[in-house]
Amino acid sequence: MAGRSRMVGAVVAVAGKRYWRQAEARVVVDAWRKSGQPLPEFAAALRVRAQRIARWAEQLEEPAPRAGTPADVDFHPVRVVGADRDRGRREPIEVLLGEGLRVRVPEGFASDDLARVLAVLEARAAC
After folding, report:
1. N or C: which end of the chain has fewer CB atoms below 10 A?
2. How far is the C-alpha of 44 from the C-alpha of 65, rounded, in Å?
3. How many Å apart are CA 123 and CA 125, to the nearest integer?
4. Lowest mean pLDDT, pick from 2-11, 27-36, 64-73
5. Nearest CA among 56, 71, 49, 66 for reference residue 26
6. Mean pLDDT throughout 85-112?
7. For residue 6, what is the DSSP state?
8. β-sheet bridge partners, residue 37
9. What is residue 1's predicted lDDT score, i.e. its pLDDT?
10. CB 48 within 8 A of CB 27
């Protein structure tokens, strides 16, 4: 890409905007990387500050955390207990919470009750 006239229309259109959204910045950064040109030369052809493209290139390299996902996720061991075929009833679900705490949930439990119990235990663990 020797000059502005030879650049792809989408790149030129985005470069002319005062503010870039992430998707728009990605168009410019990808075009620069594919061009093989030094950043100052590429930016000059677009009449954009090289620092702006460099900043976006750096931001786009870092993977963004998914919304609502904690940075550190821990998995806990789970033991699945099958149905008690002799009585036709299932064994209670047992949740081990650590520090010797466990919750046993029988068949037919009320999910609202379990949610309240877990909320109390979670608050206790945060202390």
Report:
1. C
2. 33
3. 5
4. 64-73
5. 56
6. 74
7. G
8. none
9. 45
10. no
